[in-house]
Q: What sequence folds into this?
């Protein structure tokens, strides 16, 4: 279980729990701080407050170890090498997920430059899923995808949730929030969140 | 050794060449005449002053005065490094990083040369220590400012890539390594280029100076080789220290990228 207590970053001040195998949708207008919240939980920005995974403080472990358990996926994933497969530690193991999300199995040597935004988003998701993290912090992960790919991504995430992964999923799509979230957090401009059931 | 001495009178005619530049600027409306005049005046005043200061220092041969002169040279070098940065660090490190690294690199190789191969008596004799330090500072400065410039610019430009690596559980070292390599490569480039071109395209100023002062060319070449080896070593040390130090300052103990530590 992920416990967030009094997390403060700029105007944000948020407390909530996220159970194992639970998916919560995070909604709110652009610029309200959804990305800030997700990045803060992953400890990518300086922030205050207690964040625990199964009762263990994130400060009790090195930040890289924390981020392998509580993994943030940016809306536009970044790439540090030239080709697709250089970004994966085990490309062959990633292939089933890659093909499941509608990409050809020979896309390993492809140059990052020629990927479309949607392809980058799907490959970025696969790259993060390979960590098998306990908690996924998804930031507009399907914003550039066609409906078929969105369905494929949602099904894939649903499998992970059924296996005990917790997900906090930021999305602008109300339909998606209702489909994937067992609860919905609406982020308000004062930096707090309001919980509702779909 | 014999050399042709110049009087101030000998400089009047050559100085007219600068006046010619000024006339060109006026005629072609380059609007450079004011800048040119200031630069020329600065050069004359600075060099004449340095001449007197060096005369004093060489007469004194005092470790204290020599150290003070060296310190002032390092301070000017670090100011120059900051001036060459497009993006600067916040806080004390804005000047501190460049100053520490030039002092470390130029100081180390200068001491190394003085204590092992040149061995003047006393070892801190300003006639050897100060010109040597000056040449080291000038060159390590170039490597350091280039390395830091590439580091900060690439971190800002490649921010999503660096943070993607961090978000996937990479350490700050893993995430910054490609950029650190680029920055080091840029810092090394000028000294490698000048080593390759030296003697063919350019005759180094120090060697030319020694030859004009009556030193046998082969002896002047030996001195120049010593200087070039020292510069190569100093640039390597300084650039490494500055880039690794900069990378550390722009990340924190929780392996976050801290671009808020770059002045905008």
A:
């Amino acid at each position: 279980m992920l416990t967030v207590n009094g997390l403060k970053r700029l105007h944000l001040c948020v407390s909530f729990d996220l159970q194992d195998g639970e998916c919560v949708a995070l909604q709110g207008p652009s610029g309200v701080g959804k990305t800030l919240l997700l990045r803060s939980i992953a400890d990518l920005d300086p922030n205050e407050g207690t964040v625990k995974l199964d009762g263990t403080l994130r400060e009790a472990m090195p930040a890289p170890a924390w981020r392998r358990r509580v993994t943030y996926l940016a809306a536009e994933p970044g790439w540090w090498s030239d080709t697709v497969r250089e970004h994966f530690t085990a490309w062959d193991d990633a292939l089933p997920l890659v093909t499941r999300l509608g990409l050809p199995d020979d896309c390993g040597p492809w140059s990052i430059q020629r990927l479309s935004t949607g392809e980058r988003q799907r490959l970025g998701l696969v790259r993060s899923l390979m960590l098998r993290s306990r908690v996924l912090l998804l930031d507009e992960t399907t914003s550039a995808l066609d409906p078929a790919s969105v369905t494929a991504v949602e099904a894939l995430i649903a499998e992970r949730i059924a296996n005990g992964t917790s997900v906090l999923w930021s999305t602008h799509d109300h339909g998606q929030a209702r489909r994937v979230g067992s609860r919905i957090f609406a982020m308000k401009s004062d930096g707090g969140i309001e919980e509702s059931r779909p | 050794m014999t050399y042709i001495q110049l009087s101030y009178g000998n400089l009047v005619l050559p100085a007219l060449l600068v006046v010619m530049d000024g006339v060109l600027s006026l005629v072609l409306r380059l609007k450079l005449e004011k800048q040119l005049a200031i630069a020329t005046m600065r050069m004359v005043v600075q060099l004449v002053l340095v001449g007197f200061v060096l005369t004093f220092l060489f007469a004194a041969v005092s470790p204290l005065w020599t150290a003070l002169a060296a310190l002032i040279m390092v301070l000017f070098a670090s100011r120059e490094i900051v001036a060459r940065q497009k993006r600067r660090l916040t806080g004390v490190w804005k000047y501190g990083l460049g100053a520490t690294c030039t002092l470390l690199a130029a100081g180390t190789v200068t001491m190394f040369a003085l204590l092992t191969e040149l061995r003047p008596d006393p070892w801190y004799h300003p006639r050897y220590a100060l010109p040597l330090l000056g040449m080291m500072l000038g060159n390590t400065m170039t490597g350091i400012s280039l390395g830091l410039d590439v580091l900060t610019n690439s971190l800002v430009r490649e921010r999503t890539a660096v943070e993607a690596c961090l978000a996937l559980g990479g350490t700050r070292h893993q995430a910054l390594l490609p950029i650190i390599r680029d920055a080091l490569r840029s810092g090394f480039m000028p000294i490698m280029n000048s080593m390759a071109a030296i003697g063919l395209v350019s005759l180094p100023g120090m060697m030319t100076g020694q030859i004009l002062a009556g030193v046998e060319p082969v002896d002047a070449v030996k001195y120049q080789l010593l200087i070039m080896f020292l510069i190569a070593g100093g640039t390597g040390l300084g650039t490494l220290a500055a880039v690794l130090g900069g990378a550390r300052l722009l990340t924190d103990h929780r392996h976050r990228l801290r671009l808020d530590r770059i002045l905008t």
Summary: Chain A is about 30% helix and 25% strand. The mean pLDDT of chain A is 96. The radius of gyration of chain A is 16 Å. The interface with chain B takes residues 42-46, 62-65, 67-68, 71-74, 76-81, 124, 127-128, 131 of chain A (CB under 8 Å).
